[in-house]
Amino acid sequence: MNKTVEKYLQVETVSLWIDGKATAAKSTRLGEVTNPATGNVIRYVPMANAADIDAAVLAAQAALPAWRNTPALRRARVIQKFLTLMQANVKELARLISEEHGKTLPDAIGSIERGVEVVEFACGVPHLLKGEHSENVGTDVDCYTLRQPVGVCAGITPFNFPAMVPLWMFPMAIACGNTFILKPSEKVPSASMKMAALFQEAGLPDGVFNVVHGDKEAVEAILNHRGIAAVSFVGSTPVARYIYETCARNGKRVQALGGAKNHAIVLPDADLEFAANALVGAGYGSAGERCMAISSVVAVGGIAGELVGKLNAKAEAIRIGPGDVPGVDMGPLVTSNHRDRVKDYIETGQREGALLVKDGRGFKVAGYENGFYLGTTLFDNVTPEMTIYKDEIFGPVLLVLRVDTLEEAIKLVNANPYANGTAIFTRSGGAARHFENEIQVGMVGINVPIPVPMAFYSFGGWKNSLFGDLHIYGMEGVKFYTRTKTITSRWPDTGTPGTGMNMPTLG
Ligand code: NAD
Q1: Ligand 1 centroid, distance to 430 Cα (angstroms)
Q2: Can you tell me the distance from the alpha carbon of 109 to that of 106, in angstroms, rounded to the nearest whole number?
Q3: pLDDT at 496
Q4: Is domain 55-258+465-486 annotated with CATH 3.40.605.10?
Q5: Is 111 a pocket residue for ligand 1 (Cβ < 6 Å)?
Q6: Cβ(219) – ligand 1 distance below 6 Å
Q7: Predicted local confidence at residue 494, as pLDDT
Q8: According to the model, what pLDDT value does residue 497 have?
Q9: Is 176 assigned a catalytic role?
Q10: Measured in angstroms, how far is the CA atom of residue 416 from the centroid of ligand 1?
């Protein structure tokens, strides 16, 4: 169906979710949501303006006093019900994600499950919020800390994980007693709306969780709203840097996770079959649109030829098609613009002298000629000066660089300005230990290609992959969404001490 026909058929417009209700936006500006598998416009999405953000902030502010004073165990019980509802609705959420993002249904289910792990972690919030207590820090004086919510928090999320990345943020923030405004990617608005409805069904009071849609205009309004105390962002590096700087200037707490260029080092002693299987999954899974995708393989010593042969054969075997068709391994890219941008990178790589082993351009899926498909692409003999190495491509394009030693490989990875994830493939414990110690990257895998930490650890890269001090979810998430208050107390039952003009000391 073409766009004109669909417009004629009145494609639905997604609502905002404010104060526990699907709410029409005040803004009249609309964006298109496409199904990448077909190329059709399937919904319109409102591009919220400052008045819409203001309405969301008012709802979140109104809900805050009661929610922050709700006992943590009672908050945890609502989170527990939300967990059950999320588990019961995985298939429906996966359908929405596949429809708007393009990834396969099993991959979408996997990503939801990884997000739901954070909800499971958040169920333990009464324990996580416990402070410290010291008795008798001075005579009859005690000292203790409270972890209190920050206030109204906002989350701004990317297109590539429509449920998982929002789930990194709002369950923890809300469990900690904050209220929350989520601004998901305008390309994939529906999963957030579904989660908001499920959270309400779980018993979450109105106004505690709100969803606004939109682009830069909505984001600007969030960054500049005095009623928002903290912002969590996940997206590309230039936007992450901007969010971090603007929030810091505006006195907001901020964590801004950026883009990536993740390397896997393959040592000569590695099991090459095992490594190649892992690398093909990590490079082409979700069409390479993962912040933890492996995009650069660093082949050490004489194994490069054999490794490239294996990668090529396995990349060839990947079945590409609509994400909801059984047996498909890899879906389309998110938009035609993004697909064309990735194609341009392939041309640039060729022009700059990399060896194009497998070219995904020109790939078509019969019956889905308007879908945003691109075949798997493999480059060999890539060097660090090339644009395809320097830029984040975010598509199904795997690069192989050749070096002679592990030291050279470590130096290469450490020289890259991105530092989200990395992996090493080896049978040597000593080499792996040396790598884990020396590598300047936030998340490290040893024979594990995509080392996304479990919810009871924290997720975050270094350097240009994260601006801010605290990683996301886990205990770092608890720290981000709470402020420490330190109380020093005395109960002078035996008479008030005299006036003290000097700095109090233990004496
Ligand atoms: P993006 O930076 O284009 O968009 C992210 C969010 O910012 C969206 O909500 C979008 O509406 C908003 N936005 C876009 N341009 C903006 C602007 N100029 N001003 C203000 N807001 C703006 O990212 P994307 O294309 O949606 O997602 C892909 C990127 O996200 C990749 O770079 C990927 O590596 C990164 N990512 C990082 C992680 C991580 O954990 N580090 C996880 C997932 C994705």
Answers
A1: 37
A2: 5
A3: 58
A4: yes
A5: no
A6: yes
A7: 59
A8: 61
A9: no
A10: 20
> Is the CB–ligand 1 distance for residue 157 below 6 Å?
yes
The conformation of residue 152, written as its DSSP 8-state character, comes to: E
- Ligand 1 pocket check for 420: Cβ under 6 Å: yes
pLDDT of residue 307: 98
Give the pLDDT of residue 10.
Answer: 73
User: Residue 71: CB partners within 8 Å, gap ≥ 6?
Assistant: none
pTM of the model: 0.96
pLDDT of res. 4: 45
Enumerate residue ranges in the chain where pLDDT < 50: 1-6, 8
Contacts of 188 (CB under 8 A, 6+ apart): 33, 97, 100, 101, 159, 162
* Residue having the nearest C-alpha atom to atom 30 of ligand 1: 235
Burial label for 85, CB within 10 Å (0-12, 13-18, 19+), is middle
Residue-level pLDDT at 19 = 98
- Name the residue of 236, 334, 335, 418 to mutate for ligand 1: max ligand atoms within 8 A of Cβ: 236
Domain limits of the chain? Answer: 55-258+465-486, 262-446
- Architecture of the domain whose range is 262-446: 3-Layer(aba) Sandwich (3.40)
User: In angstroms, rounded to a whole number, what is the distance separating the alpha carbons of residues 45 and 426?
Assistant: 47
Measured from the CB, is residue 186 less than 6 Å from ligand 1? yes
